[in-house]
Amino acid sequence: MERRFFLKSTSFGAGGLLISSCIGFMGCETEPVEPWEPNFFLRIMPDGTVEFSCPQSEIGQGTSTGLTQILADELGADWDKIKIQLADGSFEKFPGTQGTGGSNGIRKLWEPLRKAAAMAREMLILAASKKWDVLPVDCYAKDGFVHSTKTQLKIAFEELLSLVKDEYPSEDIAYKKESDYQYIGKSISGHKNKKIVTGSLEYSMDVTLPNMIYARIVRCPVFGGVVKHFNADAAKKMPGVIKIVQIEPIPVFENDFVGGVRSGIAVLADSSWRAIKASELLEITWDYGANASLDENAIYNEFEENEKAVKPIEGGAFSDFPNAPIEETISARYTIPYQANACMEPLNSVAFHKGYEVEVWAGTQSPQMTRERIAELTGLPLASVIIHNKFAGGGFGRRFFTDFVEEAVILSGKVRRPVKLIWTREDTISVSKYHPYAVEYWSAHLGKNNIFLGFSNKGYFTRASNYPSYLYGKPIRFHESIQNSAKQLLPRASWRSVMAYPWGFGMESFMDEVAHKLGKDPLAFRLELLGGADVSSLNRNPESPYQLEAIRLRKTLETASQKSGYTKTTKEGRAFGVSAIMYNYSYCAHIAEVSVKEGQLKVHKFTSVVDCGKVINPSQVKSQIEGSIVWGLTALLKGCITVKEGRVEQSNFHDYPLLRYSETPEIEVHLMASDHMPTGVGEPGVPGVAPAVLNAIYNATGIRLRDAPVLEIP
């Protein structure tokens, strides 16, 4: 077999990730040394720098640092010589691994990244062992060198670049022992932290290109509305204004991550400030369309009507309800409002539509999907669309959607110049996409002598939902989730923890309600249900290393109880509230400690315990759980998106506030030691925040609150 054919056809890891054909280079040692690219993840430069092409987006969550720790350990690299670069969107290079969401970054890349780095390490060791005439088994890689245990010699990776091209990776790669890890399991500061705090890290907002102009779009405030006519005479007279462009609407596609561009008028100018100021002079008459008269009450009413049509889903795990007669049923209804993502860095992108090629610079959570969408939008072949992924100041699911890139590409296509489009803060709140309104109904069925038989659940959403896994050991009869027909009133976005949020809100609140009905302590009730739960039927692939285990959730609860000093009664005017959630194979228990005085709520402390398998970076895990608690408290206590006459009423942080530092409780995060495969932590901490607080409020006051947001306590 020819070497180049072997390298092109050999695959490893999830999704058939290919070894790069760039591994071999023509020439000899007397020629200039070329960089060595053993695979699409990494490249070793002649100066010893190891360039890591990170397929995951970096939106502040720190995944790129955790992935670098994995690569550095398996490769044996010098940490200080690693340079992280976000990979351009490429399904060919990174099939199935470039979407950043669902807390999947570490979980998806743990195995393929280890394998890629271990293969490169083996090839470096083979090259060094031949140079020294020693056995490969007597060599190891560490700190950017290959070392010989027999001769005590060492050689830098870069000195092997002209030799390693002749080596072949073996089919059976041995990973490093955990005892040899230098980086995995350590709280290492992010590679980019210094640049972030000094303002020198380049975001898409910072990208500047020759001949670039700036854009501001005034979008129809009612989704589905269109421009009827407009007058731009005053705007055109403003200094620096280059062109006024009307944006035609693009509907939301079945895959609602793409499309959804609103009708509007764009001002193109020689600075962002001039574009914004000129846009304020536009006189636009809108045809608001069918949604102009709608408000959230229309949605609420339709949800009530949909309740009559729901039918149980037949089959599936836990669908077989006990035949014992039901003597009593208790029920509760929980509601979640619309929420905005409110990223600290507003949406922005730079696009250059050259006619034959489109180049984009954007902090996107979906570079592959964005690339495919831009190719579809422009009619260009995929090879002619380049997506340069940039660091972003928060995403929370909103940057997974392509509309803010589509707009920039459309405008650049009108002028054939690079265009930087910047959404204002008001744009990101009032004419964006939103976490949808949702209603959860929960029922508990009791037999004779108050014997608990099981649950029923049904949900109503403006976005179709798959339920998170249910790990409690009593049967549950799932019901269909009903998608509201008014789904186009507000376009839907992903949001940190997505539909696990309303599910967790309802389930963990109702667990307490059932416990109180049965006269049991809420924490003890959960431990009882989790103790003997058999959830093996929920594991779709018995060969997968990721398996659901109720006992792991139980252990997080037990640990949280011990660490928090939990009691079921009030203590010095304070009360505890409990929640426990499994999200994407990570397990998280919260215990909130609150007090209520004269109707004023004070959240004093959160004690949280997480089992996310093997911990790559403890500090980052704790940071993500802390951020999740702040995120969840903001959603519960600070406000929501409301709609009147078809338009969002909120516009900025004055009427869509975030939790302030002074309002943030003490947070104590504990990590469970585990030999399980690593899983994500960006979202598992969110769904249980609200119910833990609501349960604590009930224990403090006897008042059961079931609707978010909680702006006051009666």
From TrEMBL:
InterPro entries: Ald_Oxase/Xan_DH_a/b (IPR000674), AldOxase/xan_DH_MoCoBD1 (IPR008274), AldOxase/xan_DH_MoCoBD2 (IPR046867), AldOxase/xan_DH_Mopterin-bd_sf (IPR037165), N-heterocyclic_Hydroxylase (IPR052516), OxRdtase_Mopterin-bd_su_IorB (IPR012368). SUPFAM superfamilies: Molybdenum cofactor-binding domain (SSF56003). SMART domains: Ald_Xan_dh_C. It comes from the Bacteria. One of its GO terms (molecular function) is oxidoreductase activity. Residues 198-290 form the Aldehyde oxidase/xanthine dehydrogenase a/b hammerhead domain. Gene3D superfamilies: Aldehyde oxidase/xanthine dehydrogenase, a/b hammerhead, Aldehyde oxidase/xanthine dehydrogenase, molybdopterin binding domain. PANTHER family: ALDEHYDE DEHYDROGENASE, BLR6219 PROTEIN. This is Aldehyde oxidase/xanthine dehydrogenase a/b hammerhead domain-containing protein. It comes from Flagellimonas olearia.
